[in-house]
Write a structure and sequence with these properties.
The protein is α/β, with parallel strands linked by helices. It starts with a strand and ends with a helix. The chain folds into two domains: 139 residues, NAD(P)-binding Rossmann-like Domain (Rossmann fold, 3-Layer(aba) Sandwich), CATH 3.40.50; 186 residues, Dihydrodipicolinate Reductase, domain 2 (2-Layer Sandwich). It contains eight helices and 13 strands. Strand 5, helix 2 and strand 6 form a beta-alpha-beta unit. It has a seven-stranded mixed β-sheet, with helices on both faces. It has a six-stranded mixed β-sheet with strand order 9-8-10-13-12-11. Helix 1 packs across helix 8 and helix 3 packs across helix 8. The protein binds 3-amino-D-alanine. 3-amino-D-alanine binds next to helix 3. It is an enzyme of class 1 (oxidoreductase). Catalyzes the NADPH-dependent formation of L-aspartate-semialdehyde (L-ASA) by the reductive dephosphorylation of L-aspartyl-4-phosphate. Homodimer. It catalyses: L-aspartate 4-semialdehyde + phosphate + NADP(+) = 4-phospho-L-aspartate + NADPH + H(+).
Amino acid sequence: KTYNVAILGATGAVGQEMLKILNERKFPIKELHLLASKRSAGKKITVNEKEYIVEETTANSFDNIDIVLGAAENDIAKKYLPIAVEKGAIVVDNSSAYRLDKDVPLIIPEVNPQDIKKHHGIIANPNCATIIALVALQPLHAYAKAKRMVVSTYQAVSGAGVKGIMELQQQLAALAHGKEVEIQTFQHQIAYNLIPQIGSFDENGYSSEEMKMQNEGRKILNSPELAVNCTCVRVPILRSHSESIMVEFEQPIDVEKARELLANAKGVKLVDDPKSNQYPMPLDTTDQDLVYVGRIRKDISTQANALSFWCCGDQVRKGAATNAVQIAELLIEEL
Ligand code: 2RA
């Protein structure tokens, strides 16, 4: 069976990656529609030597569409995705518009695939930093049940889309030639800098990105009591997010057991041999779909059942596009 698929927001970093991943994974497509703004209509996107023409998004764009992959910002998602559902499409949405909606399952295929069947037309793709953290955490949580997490993220500029990638590259080039840097996408210069702000701050001093780790983590793990303290930092790295994670578990779990579980976990590559300088790094995780996990050690600051580890994953692929396509693959298994 083949399917009529539309990508909403096809010209953004995630939308273009979704097109690449659909081709790479040979998703059974009958018709493919690349939907974007009026300004982008007519643009040509070439993937694997195949050329696609971008169409302007209208309410009629979703006629006879089976699956919509949403890669647009929240306002566009809210405007068009309900129309797509009304016309009979099933939507996998990467925006944050519906992630915490009680009627919308929030899915990481390696963590909670069983929740997909709860959908009422829309399935939400979690935030990239949440996906990377939970793919790494899942095997440990299944064995010893996580109760508290302290997470620090080191997030690539691709999280802010094509404009984030361009801004870093342009600032580095400008500085290399002694020129002034332009600051448009991030709050401050990102080249040779770290910015401890992604999104807006709440009354507790936490950013919207930091609260996603708690709120999405609780929903995906079905652990409403999960305690999370997250700090999200923008770093001058192109595509992979890195995360330092401390987890306190209900049950005992030692480092050897954790390594054994991770070595056999879906979507994970164990890279943990510090004495040989082997640990996850963003340059190694870029342009592939596994979450690399390493630096696994007992948390020496407490008597509790706690481990610390470090993980890296490609924010555009597993953090967004690949996760969405994997959800669509699970969907068509059910259709
Ligand atoms: C970021 N996770 O990294 C957010 C949105 N992709 O900017």
